[in-house]
């Protein structure tokens, strides 16, 4: 099994429904249905929306000094709005699940395999 991160993006041309509208509530129900199906299939590991880019703080460390900047790390038209983490047999299965998310209909879903990092074996003393 391979872990995949679905990176959910939106931009200025995307038609996102306004909170509180019937369309917004339909989209929330579609999210619930999609993530519920992933959960029942045993592939969903985690998912969450993010606050808007204006809520971000960017951290950089240069020459031992921590520098903080309000806002996102990069100025781009599209913004990263949330994520879904799944574990699937292969990329084809992950792509099928990504297509079920409402974000694929109103924005974009980038599907990326997660690098599996193996901890180094403990070395015997001496």
Structural features:
single chain; alpha+beta; 6 strands; 34% strand
Describe the structure.
- The protein is of the alpha+beta class and 126 residues long.
- The chain has a single domain, classed as Dimeric alpha+beta barrel (Alpha-Beta Plaits).
- Helices cover 25% and strands 34% of the residues.
- It is built from three helices and six strands.
- The protein has helices at residues 22-41, 91-98, 103-106, and strands at 2-10, 44-49, 57-62, 65-70, 79-88, 108-113.
- Strands 2-5-1-6 form a four-stranded antiparallel sheet. Strands 3-4 form a two-stranded antiparallel sheet.
- Strand 3 and strand 4 (65-70) form a beta hairpin.
- The longest helix is centred in the N-terminal third of the chain and has 20 residues, at 22-41.
- The model has no long low-confidence stretch (mean pLDDT 89).
